[in-house]
Design brief:
Length: 562
Amino acid sequence: MTTKKTTAPQMKPALMRAFQLVGLVAIYLALEWISAIQEYRGVPVTAWNPGLGVLFAGLLRGSRIAAFALFVGAILAESLLGGGLAQTPHSVVIAAIVTLGYVAVAEIARALHLDARLERVRDVALLLSAALGGAVAVGMCLNIFLVGTGSVDFAQAMQDWLPMLVGDLIGIAVVTPLVLRSSRARVRTQLTDMSFVAGVAATTLVAAAAITFVLREGDQRAYQAFYFLFLPIVFAALRNGLDGACITLASTQLALLAALNLFGYDANAFTNFQTVMAVLTATGLLAGAVSSERDAASRSARSTRALLKEKESEAARADRFHLVTGLASALSHEINQPMTAARAYARTAQKLAETPGADVERVRDYVNRSVEQIDHAAAILRSTREFLRRGDPGRAPTMPATIVADSLTLMRPLAVEKRVGIASDVQPGLPACYCDRIQIQQVLMNLMDNSIAALAGQGRKDGAVTLSARLCEDSPGGGRQIEFSVRDNGPGVDPEFAARVFEALATTKKDGLGLGLAISAGIVEAHGGRIWLQSGAPGATEFRFIIPAAPGLLEGDISEPS
């Protein structure tokens, strides 16, 4: 019972391998028969060898079944379709030479790290080199065997070596890349891409028409005009990449063989045309590989840029959250103050209202004061929520005074906690600036946060930070610019650090990320402006940045967001 239980599951993989072997051998024999085998000196010589191309793709993938199928298929092709069953020992030796030769070449290619997906020009060049090397090696060994057995003399073997070489070479060069590049996902993608299908169909028709035009007269020298086919093949390779080149070359090869048979060309003409076809195939595959690799590099670059943009956005959001996290405790204290005052005013109004002959005006006054305090707390929360909003940035005309006021509202709790005075100095009548208000606000808050941290580290009581905005008419970039600045009377910026102050990960804070100023510089530059350290002197530290003003828009011309 135990033996049956253990052997039954093992039968399935064995049967699968047997079915695969039979299927590959059947494909090999069918392709050998279709490619019109000619008996030549006891060796099957074909116009091209598509069966070998199919099995060589399996060898490059490390398939042992493909190697065994090549051996069995070569024996059967030689015995059944070639010299007959009477020469079976002769066929076994030939099959062994073919199999061992191409298995060895495939293993060398795998050892040189050939990627069977053929994603790079290097892989295609290595495949073509393996095809040529295998065809040469197998052809030499077959000729040595034929000379040794007395089937041909040495001079005849050297003369007839080319026909044997070209069939294998063109079979691998045309069929193997097509098999290696044919995956279900890739085929589905190609069939749904009408541009790809139309391009391949058009170039294939042009190639077929050119072949018919060149070969229709039956002239043995017509292969000289065959070079005109390089134009549609190279065009297909450059337009549709390696996949388009593979399909177009296979179609061209089939059209060529059909035309050669239709117009009655002899075996020598077959060899001449196939030699030129081999050069055409190598050219088309390499051009297609270059095109595909270039397109892949372009897609990778676009993907990298998109990922970089996404990471920059994530870093900016992380920096905002890091900044607001530091404000959390101070923010709660700052909100608690107006809410406490509002509660006190409301209680007072309540007691006054309960007093006989209450003074209505005083009650109304205390109620108004309570509402004002509640509105103040709501404004702080609203500004914080807007600052932390997610999603793509949106640019719109915004008044500089609004940006400055919102930044001060958000930073005031931290300044109060650190006992640092903050103030604003905004030039009257400034034009609007076309910007993302939240991002520019973030830049100002980053600069103010650095100033407050530097002043708090000194423990001084007269620390002060001034946020200003003014019109800059003579900016280096030309046109009107809005210049924002953050000044403080702190310890200043070390000259060595000043040279790299806007570099990523550059920080002097113990718990700093080193991203604030780098992100700020990226935001300002994305707005078409620039940022710089105006002064790093102790007691007069100042950062400035400029962004373009929105032409023709002044205060009152636009409605600010609530």
